[in-house]
Amino acid sequence: MKKLILLFSLALLASCGNETKKEATSTSEEGHGHSHSQVTDEHGLAPHTENTIHQYAPTVALLNSIYEGNITPQQMVQQGNIGIGTVNHLAGELVAVDGVVYTIDAEGGIAEAPEDLESPNMTMINFQPKQTVTVENIESYEDLTRELQKYSTSKNSFYAYRIKGEFKHLKMASAHKVENEDVSLFEYLDTRVMYTRDNIKGTLVGLFTPDYLGNIVIPGMHFHFLSDDIKLGGHLEDIKFDKLSIEIQEVNQVNLQLPETEKFRNKDLKQGAAPKATAKQNGK
Ligand SMILES: [Zn+2]
To answer: How far is 54 from 89, CA to CA, in rounded Å?
Structure first.
């Protein structure tokens, strides 16, 4: 299936930006005949995937109650090895770890995403951390955000994260399927299912998106969890841990893929402030 790919070169100030900028240019020069699946690097990824946020559907689609998309797990893993997203009709969450996409049901249960799964909103990153830091005594989501911001040398870039280890406490969220497709995103968020676990081993993958990009990628800090035994996952709402290493990658490019669904193509999209990933970040 041919996809419309828009490349936004954002603030290519970092030296690592030179390489991606060149790749972005060569992709556009190849024009309409270019097939991303035919040209891959040693990771099996298309060349433009390095150091790029791959966003399927802008956040503004969810804001306009477009809860159906057509990206599949096979397409997701061509774009990166970690990722966060949601299932069509918001029937649970998605998390990608080590190049495998998993579904998270409303109780936090995990299954490998079936081939025919489709998503209305997915963010994938070919995670290649440039920095590993040790963070201690985290007692809340705010603590984690504050600690991570110490290592963000740009206020206006994306930062991708991977945190692996034992967590003292996690509060997570997932959701049941949206029955009424006209329900607003804000109403839906109020119905999310919350659950907690103590002393659990696993991996958090996540992303910081600055507010000004909030209509493209969900703004703020956004993490999804997968347990080491591949039994439990969720969208992170709160966290406590004693001491863990956190891998960090600054990303200065976003590749936005627009859905080809009829609803997306025909809807008059209204702009609005996108909710951040957690209730806490939204001041609730
Ligand atoms: Zn989420």
So the answer is: 21
